[in-house]
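Hi all, long-time lurker, first post. I run a small reading group and we've been trying to get comfortable going from sequence to structure in the token notation. Rather than ask abstract questions, I figured I'd post a concrete chain and ask someone more experienced to write out its structure so we can walk through it together at our next meeting. Sequence below, copied exactly:
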Amino acid sequence: MSDTRKSGKKNQKNGHLSKTFAEGDSPGSVWVVGGGQMGGVIARHLVSNRAGVRPSLAVADPSPEVLKLLKAEGIEGEPSLPALMKKGRSPDLIVLCVKPGIFLKSESEVSEALAAMPAGVLAVSVMAGVPLSHLRGRAPNLRWVRSMTNLALSAGKGMTLLAASQEVTHSEQTLIYSLFSGMGRALWIPEDSFDAATAIAGSGPGLLALVAEALADGGVREGLSRETATLLASWALLGTGALLVEKGHLPELLKAKVASPSGTTIEGLAALERQGVRGAMIEAVRAMAVRSRELSRNV
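-- Answer (accepted) --
Happy to help. Here is the structure in token form:
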């Protein structure tokens, strides 16, 4: 995509000059709206050495406790987005990490404030189920990137899905990719694939937590302590993920390597097949994808 905004684009309403990021640029000023689980992780990443840059950062969150915790880590905040805007300067990048209902409700303080920002500001939504069309509809003056991530972001192992509106330049896509891949892995996909991908990347950790719990329960049934069984189950998932991601093993080939003839693993696999676990997992992905589509349609 050609970078049509390298010299900036003037907002006809207020005369502000929008910033465009050329290759290798970093945002000088970033606002994170919502300092909870996802927003807090992103804010902390931005002020860490791992982020590679140290932008001027501010967080908007109504919770005094959240603001107090962030301030103790050197991150300034205000109780609302309008309060940040009253300081007079708009950000180069804004990351929206609030619940979808807060953004979408009628007379939303957040969406009204976003709509009043200077034209052309780069914005990233971390709200589940809100498509680009609705983001642009509520704040058409901003240039939007839609994302979906998961709680593993806090451990540096998050998988983040990304889709951009056509106004976002290639250089800016690279910038956003670098931000999220610094907390795990990021992947640009067509927006019409978001529901299916969200079922695996966004909700997958919940399913795998159930698997870990079931493995631990099985260990307790066989006489292990809960602590030991949970540790073993957790490391089994961690080690398997490392083999799949870092070593590039395909799931079916890894399973074949572990399941030796007449061994313990093949007995366990046979038990799972008898219980229909494979089919249940496939149906779970379908159910989650269908629900994701429903949520998007009802936005």
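A couple of things your group might point at:
The chain has two domains: 29-191, 204-297.
Residues 162 and 188 are 5 Å apart (CA to CA).
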